[in-house]
Amino acid sequence: MKINNESEKKYLRKTKKLLIGDTKKKSDTLKSYQNEIEEYLEEKPNATYENIVELFGSPSEAATEAAADVPIEYVKKRMDFKSWLVCGILGALLIWGIGVTVAVIDAHLARPGFYVETLEVGPEYEGDNIQLSTE
Amino acid sequence: MQVREHFKRGVSEIAILHLLNERDMYGYELLRELGKRSQNKFVLKYSSLYPVLYRLIDKGIISDTQKLVGRRRTRVYYHITESGKEYFEELKSEYYFITEGFNYLMNYQENDNENQ
User: Fold this and answer.
1) Is some CB atom of chain B closer than 8 A to the CB atom of A18?
2) Do B13 and B42 touch, CB atoms closer than 8 A?
3) d(CA A63, CA B59)
4) Are residues A76 and A48 in the same domain?
5) Do B74 and A35 meet the contact criterion of CB atoms below 8 Å apart?
6) Whole-prediction pTM
7) Which of A79-83, B16-20, B62-66 is predicted least confidently?
8) What is the CATH T-level fold of the domain B2-106, as seen in this structure?
9) A50 touches chain B (CB under 8 A)
10) Does residue A45 sit in helix, strand or coil?
11) B73 forms bridges with which residues in the sheet?
12) Which of A72, A93, A95, B81 has the fewest CB atoms within 10 Å, measured from its CB?
């Protein structure tokens, strides 16, 4: 359903962001709020966002109250998923960091003139007194 | 006031069922009636009303019916079921039992007890 009132739209948008639970429960909750806010706006068409909050509770209150009925198994599952997600992201960052460090060290070592492992003297210089200078 | 909210939460089921026992009502109407009939002393926010309604529906104490109002708006009416009426009567007796006991508690005096 199209929402015409800006205050209502703002209220529902903020509440939607805070709701937890499965998609159906979230959509039922929002629909219920929308229906009743529209009843209220029918009676008070000039109601502001603050008026809506006063009668319907803040979006945070709405989400908190609605969350009370969310089964604890769902909350735990969601928290477990979040923990795994955080661990996964941290692990990926760590691997990426190690990879970058190794690549930088490797590139540094491979720079010409930085590191000389062996020095071969050509036949034309054989017998010459060659002295290596570090400068 | 936090304490007031706790008290209201405790009795909101009875208050809602009391209204629905009279006639079917929709959410906003319930809020309005609660305020009006209590002389604005028992004002609930919809955020507190909604979970109670949701729970009562879940338990089969009330049911909800959608009705089309005007061209596009849907109104959800709440209706107390037969088992809900029984539950309401039990809830009321429990409430009166507890408040009676609480009144005794608050007005208790040593002399009263000795005279009995």
Assistant:
1) no
2) no
3) 21
4) no
5) yes
6) 0.69
7) A79-83
8) Arc Repressor Mutant, subunit A (1.10.10)
9) no
10) coil
11) B69
12) A72
